[in-house]
Amino acid sequence: MGKGVNRTKASTKAIAKEVSSEQENKEPPGPKPLPVLGNILQLDLKRPYLTLWEMSKKYGSVFTVYFGPKKVVVLAGYQTVKQALVNNAEEFGNRDISPIFSEFSKGHGILFSNGENWREMRRFSLATLRDFGMGKRRSEEKIIEEARYLREVLDDLHGKPFDTSQPLNYATSNVISAIVYGSRFQYSDPQFKEMVNRTNENIKISGSPSAQIYNMFPWLGCWLKDLKLLMTNRVYNLKQIEDLVASLEETLNLEETRGLVDTFLIRKKNAEKAGDKETLFNEQNLLMTVSNLFAAGTDTTSTTLRWCLLLMAKYPQIQDGVQEEIDRVIGHRQAVMEDRKNLPYTDAVIHETQRLANIVPMSLPHTTTCDVEFQGFFIKKGTCVFPLLASVLKDETQWESPLTFNPAHFLDEQGQFIKRDAFMPFSAGRRVCLGESLARMELFLFFTSLLQHFRFTPPPGVSEDQLDLTPAVGFTLNPSPHKLCAVSRASHTYA
């Protein structure tokens, strides 16, 4: 009898082991990949997020797709993305560093690093940005000052059609420059213009089909013209940052820091004095951290503002509502952050623009830090994960009219502003955008300042219906090239 019981126990263990093994091998479903090419022929490389969104309707909210030979697990929909990035923040918390960004960062900086380097640089940057007023009155004053310079540029156009990209890029770049370097640049400064333009060009190229092909098949790099331009731009930009840092180092005052660079240099010098050869406060981390902050802090905010102005010109009745509220609540004085709670419609329009514009549709890729059991599937440690933010910001279960511009998404029946859980333009969890509070402040202050002073319209001969809302191709989704007119609201005189 004892032998029979032992045999039964052994058999049960074997079955349990088999079941466990089956669960372990139950990977998320997905389209069948071809050898080497993977699912590349099924992907629209100009707008991969749209293909992945369509695939999620067939394969579910957790599925596998192959970008060439590289396996990627895609997470779709609010509940799934939240469960991964927030509820399982540690397990899904590493950054996947594709070849193109690995070439750039070499493990330094914040955006494309992991482990202790990422933790130290993020902690330092967040603390220092806060010290220099991120989300507080000090940065509010910098943004208000920059809004005044921006208005002067638009005033000088006298209502003539203009491309919105450069002035808005320069304005948001200057906010970051003031915090990082301690001073702003003149919009006419050729070095500043070149640095901003090269940064934006690189962001555009890094989301192009050729960049994605390079990420899948790095050995093709020598044939990709865009990639050579990307690398050339990077070399020039790093040289400019080096020169700016060297100039700040020459005039460094240990008692009075001007910006983030000064604070980093002091930490670097202290580590050198202490003989700490392992310090992460080294030149490579300084250059890459500044580069990361400059790129991320410029493009995303200016892109969102461009969408704001385009949507105002496209939907003049919504622009009417914003301007009526601004006139009634603020009148002729300068808007401040304290006004936001009394401008619910304006706030709702900004949030709805961020939702609909969906400017980082696939977030930045993550990787799993360990083997993960997730929604009944097994995901191996080190697997690349795409949190599909497009599917969160346009989730049909979360938004009443997900594909239309509808500020009512953020308003209750009394017209008061309401927060929405599925509003995730800055991502979520460990890798949430560290400049979120600064970006929110910039969006509110720049938008209210511009709408207070100008009426945005299509160029003469172009109707509202002809304004195209199709995004351009790029790592972030900019509006397609277009021009608008900023017509002065002459009946208003402001201090």
UniProtKB/TrEMBL annotation:
Transmembrane segments: none annotated. One of its GO terms (cellular component) is endoplasmic reticulum membrane. It comes from the Eukaryota. Its main location: endoplasmic reticulum. The keyword Endoplasmic reticulum applies. Keywords: Endoplasmic reticulum, Heme, Iron, Membrane, Metal-binding, Microsome, Monooxygenase, Oxidoreductase. Pfam families: p450 (PF00067). Heme binds at C433. Residues 15-29 have a biased composition (Basic and acidic residues). One of its GO terms (biological process) is xenobiotic metabolic process. Belongs to the cytochrome P450 family. This is Cytochrome P450. It comes from Hemibagrus wyckioides.
